């Protein structure tokens, strides 16, 4: 991981590691076939368009920060939970749904007598 948030690629990498811990983890969450999906964005070869922006937001990344370099101030909502905490809760919930889906697929495979890949 690079310590450079002066470029869009550097901020993308920072967000990926903050939310998913690795580029591989983010690519799995996004449904990309390989981590190389991110390479042109990390190398600042490609710019983030609307389709990619929506996909990055769906896996919990702060795309506004990635694009502009400006982090949103942490504000507390009426229930006392900050936006940052809410985003982390949403990310954990998303990952739990993915794990539940994978677990259900394994259970179904075991009932059919199939071997997992």
Report Rg. 17 Å
Strand content: under 5%
Largest sheet: none
Average of per-residue pLDDT values:
84
> What's the number of domains?
2
Tell me the structural class. Answer: mainly alpha
Count the beta strands: 0
The CATH architecture classification of the largest domain is Orthogonal Bundle
Which fold name is given in CATH as the topology of the largest domain? 434 Repressor (Amino-terminal Domain)
Span of the ends, CA to CA: 30 Å
Structural shape: flat
Please render the helix and strand layout as text.
Elements: H1 8-20, H2 23-30, H3 39-42, H4 50-58, H5 63-68, H6 83-112
Describe this structure in words.
By secondary structure, this protein is mainly alpha-helical. It contains 6 helices and no strands. Helix 1 packs across helix 2. It starts with 7 loop residues before the first helix and ends in a 5-residue tail after the last helix.
Structure summarized in a few sentences:
This protein has 117 residues and is mostly helical.
What labels would you give this structure?
single chain; 117 residues; 434 Repressor (Amino-terminal Domain); 6 helices
């Amino acid at each position: 991981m690079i310590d450079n948030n002066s470029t869009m690629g550097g901020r993308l990498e920072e967000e990926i590691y903050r939310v998913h811990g690795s580029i591989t983890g983010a690519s799995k969450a996004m449904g990309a076939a390989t981590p190389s999906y991110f390479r042109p964005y990390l190398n600042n070869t490609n710019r983030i368009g609307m389709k990619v922006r929506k996909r990055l937001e769906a896996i919990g990344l702060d795309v506004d920060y990635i694009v502009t370099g400006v982090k949103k101030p942490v504000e507390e909502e009426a229930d006392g939970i900050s936006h940052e905490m809410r985003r982390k809760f949403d990310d954990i919930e998303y990952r739990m749904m993915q794990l539940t889906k994978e677990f259900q697929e394994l259970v179904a495979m075991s009932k059919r007598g199939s071997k997992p890949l």
